[in-house]
Design goal:
The chain has eight helices and no strands. It is an all-alpha fold and 181 residues long.
Length: 181
C-alpha cells in the first residue's frame, strides 16, 4: 500500500474529480487516458500526448514498466572544463531514456514514487485490484471491470479515503507520542 501523504490524497481526489467531467477523455487502452495515465497527468502536470509518447518508448503496460523501473542514480563526476562527450568521459549506458529527448516514462514514474506510490500500487491502479482498496469499496465489487470510468472514480475516492484515514491515525499517534514525552 502506498505511503500516505496529503499530496497523494489530493492527487487521487483531483484525478477522480477530473474524471467526473464529461469533457475529459477516458480510454483504458491508451497510456495517457487510462487509470494510471490520468493519475500521472495530475501528478506530473504533463499533457496526455507527452505521457503517451514517453510510455511508447518501451514495451509493456504501466504495471510491467513500473516493475522494471529502478530510479536512475548515477554518480556526479567532475570532468572540469571538458565536454562530457570527449574521450575518457564516463557516460552511463542504457539509462532507459530516448536518445533524442532524454525523457522516458521513468521520469513520470519517479514523480509518482516520490508521492509514496510503489510499482505494486501502479499495477493495482491499472487493474483496480488492491485488496485494501477493494475492501474499502465494500461488497459490491465482485464484478468490477477495471476499464470503466465510474469504477476508476470510485476506486480513486476509496483509495484517497483509506490513505486519509491512515494519515489521521499517524497524526494522532505522533501527537499522542509528543504529549506522552
Amino acid at each position: 500500500m502506498a505511503q500516505p501523504s496529503a499530496r497523494l490524497v489530493l492527487a487521487l481526489r483531483e484525478t477522480a474529480a477530473r474524471l467526473l467531467r464529461a469533457d475529459v477523455t477516458y480510454r483504458w487502452a491508451s497510456f495517457a487516458h487510462c487509470n494510471c495515465g490520468h493519475l500521472a497527468q495530475t501528478i506530473t502536470g504533463l499533457a496526455p500526448a507527452e505521457i503517451q509518447k514517453r510510455a511508447m518508448r518501451r514495451e509493456g503496460d504501466w504495471g510491467s514498466q513500473a516493475r522494471e523501473h529502478t530510479p536512475r542514480r548515477f554518480p556526479d563526476f567532475d570532468f572540469g572544463d571538458r565536454p562530457a562527450l570527449d574521450e575518457g568521459a564516463w557516460e552511463p549506458e542504457n539509462v532507459g531514456a530516448c536518445q533524442v529527448t532524454g525523457a522516458p516514462l521513468d521520469d513520470v514514474l519517479d514523480q509518482m514514487y516520490s508521492l509514496g506510490l510503489s510499482p505494486t500500487d501502479v499495477g493495482h491502479l491499472e487493474r483496480l485490484s488492491s485488496p485494501e482498496v477493494r475492501r474499502r469499496l465494500g461488497n459490491n465489487t465482485e464484478y468490477f471491470p477495471h476499464h470503466r470510468r465510474e469504477n476508476l472514480v470510485a476506486y480513486l475516492q476509496a483509495w484517497a479515503a483509506l490513505l486519509e484515514d491512515q494519515l489521521d491515525d499517524q497524526v494522532f499517534e505522533e501527537h499522542f507520542l509528543e504529549a506522552a514525552e
